[in-house]
């Protein structure tokens, strides 16, 4: 590999991330003209235009998007390798990128965030909050957090807690108006709040079970949503009945703001997992993050989950 094959790639990635030559220059600590020249040289060498440039915006061309998909993970690997070598026997440093859905951020990460950063001052933590399931390798994340059933089989999955109990809930006012369901099929006649998955676009079916009998209900209703917090708020507003997991609703049930429906039919589901690509050795910064998160959740996880989420409402 020749040195000139690598020239300009880092500048390209930073411009693509910032969507601005001046912002990229500030981040790299060089002049905007130096960044522009670096990109021009790279484009000439590749024989392709990588950016659409106007006086107001900078965006990737199709060729630029394709190059970004290939180049970003490679550069991230080089950065991780240099950090791991430099951290041998030392404290972890560097950028740690985590992708996480909004609900998991509120339940798992937000309550322990300050303590983690205080414990490891050399780590810069970047958290991207996205409900959709993303390609963490292609987008150069160190790890992601999702429900265990959503994690691809080729990833290393680290359980962050036990399975979670599910709940079917509604407000007392809703049940007073529409009646309490006595059996699962009664739910088909109610206004259920339907969750639509961001990645697949599919409506979530409610999976119920009791004494070995399993049911999958295609519930329906007049409100469809793709965000757990918005679904919870709609439930509290009396819009309809929702199906949630533990960590979301226990305090609200205890306070009488929500009523548990058909509890004997509500099964457990796999809990949250942290997952990362199957590599021989993970970075020290990711290892200490995993250990810290597991320790915090082992000592006070259930309290963290209930208190951190319920106080949003």
From TrEMBL:
<protein>
    <submittedName>
        <fullName>Transcriptional regulator</fullName>
    </submittedName>
</protein>
<dbReference type="InterPro" id="IPR058163">
    <property type="entry name" value="LysR-type_TF_proteobact-type"/>
</dbReference>
<dbReference type="InterPro" id="IPR005119">
    <property type="entry name" value="LysR_subst-bd"/>
</dbReference>
<keyword id="KW-0678">Repressor</keyword>
<dbReference type="InterPro" id="IPR000847">
    <property type="entry name" value="LysR_HTH_N"/>
</dbReference>
<dbReference type="InterPro" id="IPR036390">
    <property type="entry name" value="WH_DNA-bd_sf"/>
</dbReference>
<dbReference type="Pfam" id="PF03466">
    <property type="entry name" value="LysR_substrate"/>
</dbReference>
<comment type="similarity">
    <text>Belongs to the LysR transcriptional regulatory family.</text>
</comment>
<feature type="domain" description="HTH lysR-type">
    <location>
        <begin position="1"/>
        <end position="61"/>
    </location>
</feature>
<dbReference type="InterPro" id="IPR036388">
    <property type="entry name" value="WH-like_DNA-bd_sf"/>
</dbReference>
<dbReference type="Pfam" id="PF00126">
    <property type="entry name" value="HTH_1"/>
</dbReference>
<keyword id="KW-0804">Transcription</keyword>
<keyword id="KW-0805">Transcription regulation</keyword>
<keyword id="KW-0238">DNA-binding</keyword>
<dbReference type="GO" id="GO:0003677">
    <property type="term" value="F:DNA binding"/>
</dbReference>
<dbReference type="GO" id="GO:0003700">
    <property type="term" value="F:DNA-binding transcription factor activity"/>
</dbReference>
């Amino acid at each position: 590999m020749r040195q000139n094959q690598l020239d300009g790639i880092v500048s390209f990635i930073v411009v693509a991330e910032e969507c601005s030559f001046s912002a990229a220059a500030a981040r790299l600590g060089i002049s905007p003209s130096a960044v522009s020249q670096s990109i021009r040289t790279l484009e000439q060498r590749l024989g392709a235009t990588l950016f659409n440039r106007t006086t107001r915006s900078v965006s990737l061309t199709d060729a630029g998007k394709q190059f970004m998909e290939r180049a970003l993970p490679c550069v991230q690997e080089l950065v991780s390798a240099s950090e791991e070598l430099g951290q041998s026997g030392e404290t972890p440093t560097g950028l740690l990128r985590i992708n996480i859905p909004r609900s998991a951020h509120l339940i798992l990460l937000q309550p322990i965030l300050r303590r983690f950063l205080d414990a490891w001052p050399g780590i810069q933590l970047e958290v991207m909050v996205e409900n959709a399931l993303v390609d963490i390798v292609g987008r150069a994340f160190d790890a992601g957090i999702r429900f265990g059933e959503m994690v691809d089989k080729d990833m290393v999955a680290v359980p962050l807690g036990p399975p979670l109990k599910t709940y079917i809930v509604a407000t007392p006012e809703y049940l007073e108006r529409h009646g309490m369901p006595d059996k699962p099929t009664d739910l088909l006649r109610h206004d259920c709040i339907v969750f639509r998955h961001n990645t697949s676009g599919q409506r979530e079916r409610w999976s119920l079970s009791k004494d070995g009998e399993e049911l999958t209900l295609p519930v329906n209703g007049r409100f469809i949503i793709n965000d757990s917090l918005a679904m919870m708020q709609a439930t509290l507003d009396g819009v309809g009945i929702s199906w949630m997991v533990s960590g979301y609703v226990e305090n609200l049930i205890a306070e009488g703001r929500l009523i548990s429906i058909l509890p004997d039919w509500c099964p457990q589901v796999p809990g949250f997992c942290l997952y990362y690509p199957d590599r021989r050795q993970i970075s020290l910064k990711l290892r200490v993050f995993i250990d810290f998160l597991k320790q915090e959740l082992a000592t006070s996880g259930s309290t963290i989950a209930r208190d951190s989420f319920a106080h949003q409402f």
